[in-house]
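Complex 382.
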Amino acid sequence: MKKVFKSSLVFAVVLSAFLTGCSQKPGSSANVTPEQKTAASESSGSAAKKKEVVIGFSIGTMKQERWQREVKMAQKYADDHGFKLIVQSCEEDAAKQVQQVEGMLTQGIDALLISAQDSESSGVIVEKAHQAGVKVIAYDRLVRNGDLDYYITFDNVKVGELQAKMLTDRYPKGNYIWVLGGPEDNNAHLLKQGQESILKPFIDKGDINIVIQQWAKGWNPEEALKIAENGLTKVKNDVVAVVASNDGTAGGVIQALESQGLAGKVGVSGQDAEIAALQRIVEGKQTGTVYKPTQVLNQTAMDLAYALATKDEAKIKELDSGNFKNGHIGKVNNGPKDVTSLLMDVQTVTKENVLDTVVKDGYQKLEDIYKNVPKDQWPKTK
Ligand code: BGC
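Predicted structure with beta-D-glucopyranose bound:
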């Protein structure tokens, strides 16, 4: 990944949006029903009456808690700004995602946000959108092989580094199981890059030995469970840590550890700050997670999509690059081009800093995180 620290005038909107987004409270965290997953959501407001603005939001999966929350946030943004939002999840079917976007384009959208199910094959979507005069923002997951307009995401290499580091800090020697994410998702490859950069010196020294390294297709927890089981069997349970690439797969891994009486004795990483993972962390079963403030990601992406959809040149021009304290602008190469990208900062969350991170931000509630812990063991809030 090549990063060029250069801001463009157009991308200044991202900066400003990001800065304003940071001061906003996160949206509702309630789940959406399966019916809502593929349903088009309409929002009507007085501002939209002149000419209805329509934005498409195409998602690869709704399985993880984060995507459900982000759809809610996007819907709230659309309600607040009075435009129509079409949300569709392809439920992990890359071909269906192409069809769904075709449908959105036929309906008539003014901008498209896409979280690609398959990073490699989603390039065609950009082509189709451009033919219809619609700009495309890759949301969280990169679209490769297309003339993509923008990419808004977290620093995924950094996520991988933090995942490995939370383990090597506590388990600098011994056998490791390495569960990679979904190979179809570019993010999983960036995570691997970050994880590798931390683990390699330990492996080269002979301090850490990788028992098994495998991709969990579709980020499937069941796959992660099987990989962990195979690794444990291979070395007769002599494992000190498991690199899990997200909280969902960490859940599968911890199930495998539990059935061997090893939960809490073996380190496990994750990412997403899912409620189930945070519960496992305070119960001592998972070492940590990586918190990615998705409310900021969502707000920033929606601000940019709305500015593009309304061709708000004045707004774009009025915004200056300013200070950018919660991430950096760079260029991410997606094959055909270096895409202007916003890479947001991330943070490790362990039992020690749960209060100062996810709780402080209102991302998750203390009473939910500590639900299974006796009340006298809850941390004191100020
Ligand atoms: C996201 C992770 C998520 C995973 C599975 C990745 O692209 O960055 O946050 O856990 O997909 O949905």
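The two ends are 42 Å apart (CA to CA).
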